[in-house]
Each structure stands twice: as C-alpha cells, then as structure tokens.
Specification:
Layout (H helix, E strand, L loop, with lengths): L1 H60 L3 H10 L6 H18 L3 H11 L5 H18 L3 H10 L6 H18 L3 H11 L6
Helix pairs in contact: 1-2, 2-3, 3-4, 4-5, 5-6, 6-7, 7-8
C-alpha cells in the first residue's frame, strides 16, 4: 500500500511539474507573441513612415519633385506630410522661377495652393514674366502677362504703357498702321 501511495505521490508531483512547465511555456509564448506584435506595429506605424519621410526629404533635396510629391502624398497623415507635399510644388516653383520658366513657376505655385504665400506669388510671377517679355520686345506677351497679374503692383497702368512703347517701336520701324492700332490701345496714356 505504501508503494502505491509513493507511486501516486510521484505521479502527482510529475503532473504538477508538467502543469508548471506548461504554464511557463504558455507565459513565454504569450510574452513572445506580444513582443512580436509590438515590433510589427512599431515598424508599421513608426519606423517605416519615418524612413519614408526621410526618403521623401532626400528626393526633394535631390530635385526629384515628382518622386518627393508622391512619397509625401503616400504618407497621408504622418507628421506634416500633407503640407510637405504642397511645399514640393512651392520649392519647384522657386527653382523654375530662378531658371526663367515663368509659366512653369505659375503652374507650380497654383498647385501649391495655400502653402505659405503661393497664392500671392502667382501674380508676382506673372508680373515678373511681363517685365521680362517687355525687356525682350514681346509687347503682346507682356500685355497678356500684365493682364493676368491682375491688380498686382501697377499692372493695370503698365498695360497702356506697354501698348504705347509698342506703338513707338512700330513707329520707329515705319509701321504706321501697327503704330496707330497700338496708340489706340494705349488709350489716354501720355499723348497717345
């Protein structure tokens, strides 16, 4: 009987040890699972977007405006990605303006929307374009850009002034009919 009791006691100890071992493995499994899930979430919501944001910044710095815009747009609500997507257009517009591509700059400022002073830069750029066209002797182009500049600075006054300058240039080249038309367009400017 004593042998039977010892066997039963040994069996009970073994079962208790197995239960304890099984509980230990369950805890290890659960903790491991939590760590893995936390790592996946950390990567998905913190590390990967941070890397993508850094890459978008690098694309912008390298002048890859399309790539930077796409990268910032793909980041959606991460940090200030939506604003940075607009800033890509602004930075691109500045570059185009410095290169003398006024039409491209206007287009990019328009795409930049309400980013910084982009809306105000559109008429400023059109005015600068008009000045450049006027200096190059493209009077019709200058008038069109002064008109597009709206009420920026003295755009409205520059239109008849440009027609007058065009008329004088035509008069100097003996194009009397063309000069007459331009003087007419100049309206009451000076002695038109």
């Amino acid at each position: 009987n004593q042998v039977k009791d010892e066997k039963a006691s040994a069996k009970a100890r073994m079962e208790a040890r197995e239960k304890k071992q099984q509980a230990r493995w369950t805890v290890i499994y659960c903790v491991s699972l939590v760590i893995i899930i936390s790592g996946v979430l950390l990567y998905a919501f913190v590390i990967r977007p941070s890397i993508s944001y850094y890459k978008a910044e690098a694309l912008l710095d390298a002048g890859d405006y399309d790539g930077a815009k796409a990268a910032f747009t793909a980041l959606k609500d991460y940090k200030d990605a939506a604003s940075r997507a607009l800033s890509v257009h602004y930075v691109h517009a500045e570059k185009l303006l410095n290169e003398g591509d006024y039409d491209g700059a206007v287009e990019q400022f328009i795409f930049a929307g309400n980013y910084e002073d982009a809306a105000e830069r559109v008429p400023m750029t059109r005015y600068a374009h008009a000045e450049a066209l006027l200096a190059a002797g493209d009077y019709d182009g200058a008038v069109a850009q002064f008109e597009a500049a709206g009420d920026h600075e003295d755009s409205a006054q520059r239109i008849p002034m440009t027609h007058y300058a065009h008329a004088e240039a035509l008069l100097a080249s003996n194009d009397l009919a063309g000069a007459a038309i331009c003087f007419y367009k100049a309206g009451n400017y000076q002695d038109a």
